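This part of the workshop introduces the protein records we will be handling. An example says more than a description, so a record of this kind follows:
>
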Amino acid sequence: MYVIVLKYHAPLAVIDALKDAHYTNPAGLFALGMVRFAGPLEPRTGGLIIADGEPSAIEAAVASDPFITQGAATADILRFEPTWTPGEAAEAPGVP
């Protein structure tokens, strides 16, 4: 699983103009079904995407994103392995 942190470098008007292309990019994370969760950061300085996929596919999809190709944002791709979920909390000893 991956956390992708987008950092905007362009004015929000540029980000908003690229938003549809960001979501519909045929080689992108959304079109390829890799996204589990996504949304803007508050304040609106970037966005966060939680995605699943092979490392090379994640990297290629992010690199093809219009935010990236147009220089409107940069992306940090961070891999992580979840070790806890809310369902596990109910099963943990000592957790009410």
Notes: The mean pLDDT is 93. Helices lie at 12-24, 55-63, 66-69, 86-91. The radius of gyration is 16 Å.
